[in-house]
Specification:
It is a single chain. The protein has about 600 residues and is α+β, with helices and mostly antiparallel strands. Helix 2 crosses helix 8. Helix content is about 50%, strand content about 20%. Strand 16 and strand 17 form a beta hairpin. It contains 15 helices and 17 strands. It is a multi-pass membrane protein. GO terms for molecular function: ATP binding; phosphorelay sensor kinase activity. Keywords: ATP-binding, Cell membrane, Coiled coil, Kinase, Membrane, Nucleotide-binding, Phosphoprotein, Transferase, Transmembrane, Transmembrane helix, Two-component regulatory system.
């Protein structure tokens, strides 16, 4: 019976079925859910406002504690600074300009290291009636005034504050000071005989700090600092007040994310307790600024949701059919393409709009994957070839060094000093070229290799050329690619000076340029074009300049460049690389052929 009734009630036409299903399964449940969710959102937003206010309040409290602790740490560092202690104990060893300069440098370093340093001021007075301050006072400060703690104002912090207390700001003679009181700490520095030598004062303009840091948060909020007896120490907005009930709740409430409301639900109140100062940071956020008319907002929300839902259902019915049919065709083609190893492309002609874009993207992806597979095959073959070449290169070449070492000692036994010195210089170059442990070496080491090569060539070419160096001294330990300059000098000698008997000049210039370093090798030879005509019949191709370009590209990628400028008057090669300086901790010895020391 029930089954027959259900059959009669269910529409026979598909459109009516979809409409009925949409009405009872989408629209009505959606309206109920929206109403429920709106209430949940209202509650959630209230909690989020409270949590946001609490988080902002905790940020202020943590920032204040961080500022205070770092200021205390700075005072401790001043107490242990031997340079400052010497200035305070023996000021006669320095003139006034030197003392003030040293103190100003110390204050400058402190300002750079301490966040929000503009709200922290330091005054140091020694027993010789010299006074130093981290700021320029409006009137001269009297040293003896700072030989004791400043007078406390109001109900200051308790003994847990580790010496911090509220003092009158007038004693500092701050230019343009707006805060009537400052947070102060005081320390006496004693000499070896436990006699006072200096008095250190730290002052924090906590009111200005609170106003400045609270501006980063949303408008409408007010922040207060309340002490342990319920008095308002300071506040960010004039005219904003805390009721007695609110203050009492703050003093008696929990200190971990407390949540309280003022009468009438006008504001949310959050507080954070700072044990070290016995202070409460209190935040007041007016709810009306955020919500406004909740009832009107709720009605508009529900009406808009119903309209959008109805329109969405109608449009969905119309669009779904036009989307599912093309997708089914695309799916069929994709399955065929997978079976044919990515060799089938989907025809783009019958499709339009987003489906056409999807088909085009898929075709591009299939092509890219196919190309990538081919590229991987090529790279795999290249890797196999490189691996084979690496196996060939594993034959130990150090027999060359041993042979060169034998030549060196034979020449030394035969008193042939020339051959001996050439062998030592050649050993340096050969050992550097065989070493594969380092790609980057110090500039000074690279210059030693160039001088060794130059020393060898001088024996052959005599006075045909000279080498001039222009190098900035601070670049001595800059890191450069190994053997990046020697091939350029070799090209200048063998190719640039090929048709010269004398007068050849090789200029090596190395200097800093912005964040990088420039290495230039320039000669006054015949130029690259003339040199290529001279050496066109060489069987062995030159690899020096091309080798340098490839190594620079591999090491620095787009951060470096190699520029070649050549004409009939000579050739200039300019290498620009990032500036990396790595000064050694200890200077060791550079050993070459058979342990010889440069």
């Amino acid at each position: 019976m029930l089954k027959r009734i259900m059959i009669k009630l269910i529409p026979t036409k598909l459109k009516i079925r979809l409409f009925t299903a949409s009405l009872f399964l989408i629209v009505l449940p959606f309206a109920i859910i929206q109403n429920y969710q709106f209430r949940e959102v209202e509650s959630l937003v209230m909690n989020q406002i409270n949590e946001l206010n609490s988080n902002q309040l905790y940020q202020l409290a943590e920032g204040f504690e961080s500022l205070r602790s770092k200021a205390s740490l700075t005072m401790f560092q001043y107490e242990k600074d031997f340079v400052l202690m010497d200035i305070w104990q023996h000021p006669e060893l320095y003139n006034e300009r030197e003392r003030n300069g040293l103190m100003e440098e110390k204050f400058r370093l402190t300002r750079n290291q301490l966040p929000a340093s503009s709200y922290v001021h330091y005054v140091i007075a020694d027993t010789h009636e010299n006074i130093y301050s981290s700021y320029t006072p409006a009137k001269p400060l009297q040293p003896k005034t700072f030989w004791k703690q400043p007078e406390e104002v109001g109900a200051g912090p308790s003994q847990q504050s580790l010496g911090w207390r509220l003092v009158n700001s007038n004693s500092l003679n701050l230019d343009g000071a707006t805060s009537p009181s400052l947070l102060s700490n005081f320390s006496v520095v004693q000499d070896q005989n436990r006699m006072p030598m200096a008095y250190i004062h730290i002052f924090i303009d906590y009111e200005a700090w609170l106003r400045a840091n609270s501006q980063d948060f949303s408008t409408g909020q007010s922040y207060f600092i309340v002490n342990q007896i319920g008095e308002t120490v300071t506040q960010t907005k004039r005219g904003s007040l805390l009721t007695e009930e609110t203050v009492r709740s703050v003093l008696n409430g929990e200190r971990q994310y407390p949540y309280m409301e003022e009468p009438g639900m006008t504001s949310t109140i959050n507080s954070v307790f700072i044990p070290s100062m016995q202070w409460y940071f209190v935040g007041k956020f007016p709810i009306s600024l955020f919500f406004g008319d909740l009832i009107g907002l709720k009605r508009k929300f529900l009406l808009t949701s119903l309209i959008i839902t109805s329109v969405f259902i109608g449009i969905t019915l119309l669009i779904s059919g036009s989307i599912t049919r093309p997708l089914q065709r695309v799916q069929k083609k994709m399955l065929e393409m997978g079976k044919n190893n990515l060799k089938i492309q989907i025809q783009e002609q019958p499709y339009k709009g987003e489906i056409l874009t999807f088909v085009q993207s898929f075709n591009r992806m299939a092509t890219d994957i196919k190309d990538l597979v081919e590229q991987l095959k090529i790279e795999e073959r290249q890797k196999e070839a490189l691996h084979f070449q690496m196996l060939l290169n594993q034959i130990d070449p150090h027999f060359l060094l041993n042979t060169l070492n034998t030549i060196k000692w034979v020449s030394l036994d035969q008193n042939n000093q020339t051959v001996y010195e050439i062998s030592v210089a050649l050993g340096r170059l050969l050992e550097a070229s065989l070493s594969s442990e380092q790609d980057l070496i110090h500039l000074c080491k690279e210059l030693e290799l160039i001088r060794s090569y130059e020393y060898i060539q001088k024996y052959r070419f005599k006075d045909m050329f000279e080498t001039r160096y222009t190098i900035e001294s601070e670049l001595e330990y800059a890191l450069v690619p190994k053997l990046c300059l020697q091939p350029l000098v070799e090209n200048a000698i063998y190719h640039g000076f090929a048709n010269m008997q004398q007068g050849g000049i090789v200029d090596i210039r190395i200097y800093r340029e912005r964040q990088g370093m420039v290495l230039e090798v320039q000669d006054n030879g015949q130029g690259i074009q003339s040199a290529q005509q001279t050496t066109a019949r060489r069987q062995r191709k030159g690899i020096g300049l091309e080798n340098i370009k490839q190594r620079i590209q591999l090491l620095y990628h787009a951060e470096a460049s190699v520029e070649v400028v050549s004409d009939s008057c000579g050739t200039l090669v300019r290498i620009t690389i990032p500036l990396l300086i790595a000064a050694p901790f200890l200077e060791g010895e550079d050993r070459f052929v058979d342990g010889s020391v440069s």
